[in-house]
Amino acid sequence: MSSFHPLPRPFYDRDPVTVTRELLGMHLVRREGTIERIGRIVEVEAYLGPHDKAAHSARGRTKRTEVMFGPPGHAYIYLIYGMHCCLNVVTEAEGHASAILIRALEPVKNLDGRASGPGLVCRSLHLDRSWNGHDLLSDDLFIAEPDARDAIRIIRRPRIGVDYAGSWAKRLLRFYIARNEWVSRK
After folding, report:
1. Where residue 118 sits, what CATH number does that domain have?
2. Are 111 and 28 contacting, i.e. CB atoms less than 8 angstroms apart?
3. Is 165 part of any domain?
4. Contact between 169 and 54 (Cβ < 8 Å)
5. Residue 155 included in any domain
6. What is the pLDDT of residue 80?
7. Proportion of the chain in helix, strand, coil states, percent, rounded to 5
8. Is 184 a member of any domain?
9. Helices and strands in the chain, H and E counts
């Protein structure tokens, strides 16, 4: 097993755009018994809370979005198209309902298949909706700073698949590492 340790809760208890940028290059770690699956985060999208028409929390506090309204540093996992799970990280103080979608991982260790797309991220880490609400300060699913971080150039683009959100669809809230082959869409 690696010596990685979860990022502290105050890391998540900040503005989602700041956290989004700082997640790039971090490692997403899933421990399953003696198997450790690790991916380097290379693409993310910020969802700023109920005022962001593309955020699930824009529809209010529901059973589905309850985790988003909770404390920072928890996993918000939902199902899209009735078949794909997507992993988000809750940010800001309780009640803000902002989150960051993990869109793509670069394989580091034991990922099952490609992780270039939000549904593939969950599939490669063996995550399903039972992980919704999971505390990312745990020892079985967490985000950690790698031993060494290369300098990266960050690209900002509009989020993907949120055309229904009007002007919010054009906001530059998708971030990815330039020239990284594992990004879902360049």
Report:
1. 3.10.300.10
2. no
3. yes
4. yes
5. yes
6. 83
7. 20, 35, 45
8. no
9. 3, 8
Q: How far apart are CA 33 and CA 39, in angstroms?
A: 17
> Residue ranges of the alpha helices (H) in 63-166?
118-125
pLDDT tens for the 186 residues of the chain, in order: 678 999 999 999 999 999 999 999 999 999 999 999 999 999 999 999 999 999 999 999 999 999 999 999 999 999 987 779 999 999 999 999 999 999 999 999 999 899 999 999 999 999 999 999 999 999 999 999 998 888 899 999 999 999 999 999 999 999 999 999 999 987
d(CA 4, CA 132): 22
CB atoms within 10 A of CB 9: 14
What single string gives the DSSP state of each residue in 23-63?
A: HTT-EEEEEETTEEEEEEEEEEEEE--TTSTTSGGGG-S-T
Encoded tokens for 183:
């990004």
Q: Is the dihedral of CA 82, 140, 73, 134 positive or negative?
A: positive
CA distance 8 to 12: 8
